[in-house]
Amino acid sequence: MQRPMNDAQLLTLLQRDADAGLRAAMQAYAPLLKGICRRVLPRSPQDVEECMADAFVALWRHAAALAAGQVPLRAWLAVTARNAAINRWQRLRREGAVPLDDAPAQALGELAAFDRPTADAEDAVGALVAAMEPPDREIFLRRYYLLQPCREIATALGLSENTVNVRLSRGRERLRRALTEQEATSHAENL
Q: Binning pLDDT at 50, 70 and 90, where does residue 123 land?
C-alpha cells in the first residue's frame, strides 16, 4: 500500500504534473471538501461538485505560492471550499433558486465572524487554525469548516459538549487577539 503524500510532495507533484497532482489531491482531500460543501449546500449535489472542482482548480493555480509559504493544505483547501460553497449559496439565494431555511442561514451567520474580505486575512485565519494544538484544531475544523454541531463534535472526540464549547470560546478569543496583533503590526509597518 502506498503511503500518502505530505503537503510538500503533493505541491511539487502539482507543479510538475498537474493531472497526477490533481488526482492525488482529490484522493487525499475530496471527502473533506465534499463534507464541507454539503453542509452549506445540502440540497445541491451538482453545486457541491462544482465547488469542490473550484477548490481543486484554485489549489493547482496557487500551488507554487502555497509551497513557498508552506501553507497547510488541509486548512487552505477547507477554507477555499467553504468560501466557494458560501458564495454559491449566496448567488443561488439572490437568484431565488434556493429557499432560505434555518440550517444554512444559521451556519452562514456563525461563519460570518471568520470571513474576511481579503485572501490575506483568510490565509491568516487558516494558518492560525492550522497552528492550533490538538484537540482544539480538530474542534475548530469540525465546527467552522465542516459545520458540525457541538454535540456531534463532542461525541466524535470523546469530550463533553461543555468542553467543546469552552474550547471554541477560548480559541475564538486567541484568534481574535492574534488577528488584532497582526493588524496592528501590519499597520505599524505601513506608517
A: low
Interatomic CA distance for residues 39 and 107, integer angstroms: 8
Is pLDDT of 153 > 60?
yes
Q: Where is the domain boundary, 39, 73, 105?
A: 105
When pLDDT is averaged across residues 9-15 and rounded to a whole number, the result is 91
> How many CB atoms neighbour CB 81 within 10 A?
29
Domain that holds residue 19: 1-105
The pLDDT confidence band at residue 110, using thresholds 50, 70 and 90, is very low
> How many domains does the structure of the chain reveal?
2
Distance CA 145, CA 47 (A): 17
Give domain status of residue 120, yes or no: yes
Same structural domain, 61 and 151: no
pTM above 0.85, yes or no: no
- Verify that 9 and 51 share a domain, yes or no: yes
- What mean pLDDT comes out for the span 65-81? 87
| 25-52 exposure pattern, b = at least 16 Cβ within 10 A, e = fewer | beebbbebbbbbbbbbbeebeebbebbb
Residues 101 and 11 reside in one and the same domain? yes
Amino acid at 66: L
